[in-house]
Design brief:
It is a single chain. The protein has about 260 residues and is of the alpha/beta class. It is built from eleven helices and ten strands. It has two domains: about 200 residues, Alpha-Beta Complex (2-enoyl-CoA Hydratase, Chain A, domain 1), CATH 3.90.226.10; about 45 residues, Lyase 2-enoyl-coa Hydratase, Chain  A, domain 2, CATH 1.10.12.10. Helices cover about 50% and strands about 15% of the residues. It has a six-stranded mixed sheet with strand order 1-2-3-5-7-10, with helices on both faces. Strands 4-6-8-9 form a four-stranded mixed sheet.
Length: about 260
Amino acid sequence: MASAEEPLLHQYSENGITTLTLDQPKRRNSLSMAMLEELSTALEQVAQDSETRVVVLAAHGNVFCAGHDLTEIQNRFDDHEFQLALFKLCSKVMQQIVNLPKPVIARVAGVATAAGCQLVASCDLAVAADTARFATPGVNIGLFCSTPMVALSRNVSRKHAMEMLLTGELIGAARAETIGLVNRVVDEQVLDETVYRMARTIADKSGQAVKVGKEAFYRQLELPLADAYEFTSQVMAENMQASDAREGICAFLEKRNPEWSKD
């Protein structure tokens, strides 16, 4: 783990928004074992933090995240147990993002490649600077991006995912938006403004409803159509019993602003 003087990850919270910032620009914010451990711990803490409504995932430097630390991997070529532990931890972190009961927005400036692209795809939303670029280039070095493929293929169409995986070529931010990898592309000068306006908009909603909705969204994706409707019908009926649902409906009918619970 990093020392207290040299943290790999910075955490800052304000007005219901927690920003987690990868901060190892000299190593291209790579997902080393230590970085993944810090990120996993931070996500566990945020999940339990009742004050946090939205999470922003950002990075310092001109590279958002270059994927795994290849130097670390090279130094452990013959250590299969380490390699397996590394990829399992990375997979755990990606699932923590998906399972987090609060929305996660990726703020992407610079390059996001391999597991870094996986990190963007794993977030619920992504806003990119117009200079950002994305790739899953493992095929170029003989190490196919198999785990990044999981998140990528769940965000873009099969053919677009396969093109990225098989060619390993960088794509620009505009292309990433077209294929659904990111939500919005903006000038880098207004990237923060756009990201935090989106985060603020979501943070002002009912935390109860957002939590229920995010969990249901990912669960229904994996179900056949009829099962998805059966599941979401039950979710909505249960959601109707929540205090925020009752408050929201009454506020709408009474033409006033709702007062959401602190849960």
